[in-house]
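Reviewers of the previous submission asked for a worked example of the structure-prediction workflow described in the proposal, so we include one complete record here. The input consisted solely of the amino acid sequence. No template or homolog information was supplied to the procedure at any stage.
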Amino acid sequence: RGQASPTPPLRSVTIGNVGRCVLIIVLSARVAVAQATGVESLVLPSGLLVLVVHNAAAQKLDVSTAVFAGSRDDPESLRGIAHLAEHVAMGAARSGKSLASVAAANDITMSAVTLGDMTRFSSLASPTVKSLQAILELERLRLSELLVSANAIAADVKRIRAETADRLGDQHDGSTLFGAHRLSRSTSHADLLHINERELGS
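From that input alone, the workflow returned the following structure tokens.
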């Protein structure tokens, strides 16, 4: 067990073409090679940059996927699409497999946040190779097999409306909180009700 390296499962992950994205894995000594310290990096064939941080003091396995697009990147006619994409990306795969059910079955805690210039998905679990493999499967589903449907969009629009207390127009106070989302500049969800599958899937 102490000799298990993160590299083989990473190299075997098949993810579609990925741009502007990095996967960050913080490993404790229970998962990493005992002598390993510091940071390793590799680029998967999909273009996904993976950073593996060896931290012997870590109590949990911590995996984050950072997509370098946030509310500042919303097109003028699609204000709110980054926040909506974050919600949809916590949903289900095209196979019908729910990301939340995969996480729950493997005792993984998932969270996500949309910021001005980045959207981040995080998973915490016990520091085992099994947990790492389960989280990598979650990220594979999120990055390459996500279900984008009218029903999923409608359900997530409803959640965002509740999160924002239905304040969908321009918000000029950079400290405004939308649930867990503190945005660093004025933001807007003004076009949220008009975003469709084609726009979100592109």
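The first strand starts at residue 21 and ends at 27. We consider this example representative of the routine output the project will generate in years two and three.
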